[in-house]
Amino acid sequence: MNFGPMNRVYTQVAQGQGWLRRYVGHRPRLACVLGFTETGLIPGISAAGSTPQQRQTTAIADAEFLFHGPTPAPQHPLPPLVEGVSPALISRAVIATQLMPLLIFDAGLPIAPTVPHIDLRGATAACVSSGQALPRSLVESLFRFGIMWGHRLGSQAGSDYVILGECVVGGTTTALALLLGLGLPVQNQVGSSHATCNHAQKQAIAAQGLAHWQAQQASGRSLDPLDLVAAIGDPMQVVVAAMALSASCHGGVMLAGGTQMLAVYALARSLARYRRVSWQPEKIIVGTTRWVAEDPTCDTVGLAELIGSVPLIATQLSFAESRYPALRQYEAGFVKEGVAAGGCAIAANIYQNWQQSQLLSAIEALYEKTLNQQTSPPEQPV
To answer: Which domain holds residue 314?
Structure first.
């Protein structure tokens, strides 16, 4: 099996390569958990939608595209981005062609998804800067739902594995706040959807929220990680962390995303320790794209090494030779990752041995179909 050129293991190399070998020829199940934080409405905080209004429905549009693919009149079209095109194209190309089972979870959105989904009865999070992002009782409920669904997904996967993806606009800022709250010195390491990461803006927002929260804490009190999520997190984080813990008791788990999923892993480990939750951390990896792993404006690999014990694996998918300018923008640092794009590309290689040419061909074919469904004149390949 030739997964060497397409999937690179950046940290915990022996463990990561062993994980890849274990699941050669296995088709995963994808669970994509959607959430929203009002942090995503801050001007300039995210490039996942060119206006704050569009960012409110980015996750819903991505879910619709993941489920249906391109349609003539989508209820929520993929939002125009600052540059590039939605990473849902990558995920959908793999899901559709390799018949990957998909489940969509609403952990807390402003509008319910328009496609079949599982409602976890969550809520949107207030801005990180408030220090009061979510009701504590709601975070506890989401944790319990995550544990339940992780067991269900893991047992359904059997000898295969589970991919846990996400879509939370502004989620790298909540990831930064979460990692800082867990005591990790991660300044300037967490990524973003911008070509150049907006570290100062994220740091200021996270610091403000943590200061508000810490001012209300009793000194010397042991930190329940769920308290931290309630203060400065988002609804996706606690659900996916809980799912990863319980699903790992059954088999392999890929946390599909960049620095957001590294933060989720750190949260899962902290929850396991504090709550004495059984899990098998050696069965968990973080899977992302080369554009995240090698982003020169953050330090994804350094962050993974700082967190420790989890393999960071990235697809080496390249759009440098794409016929479409919007896809080539990924090579300029825009977009990079989202809705399990990197994880799906990794899975396409270890399941059906897809290499660069097959991945690129499937994604370009889907993009061409998407353009042809639009009413405006389609972008021409060059």
So the answer is: 7-213+224-371
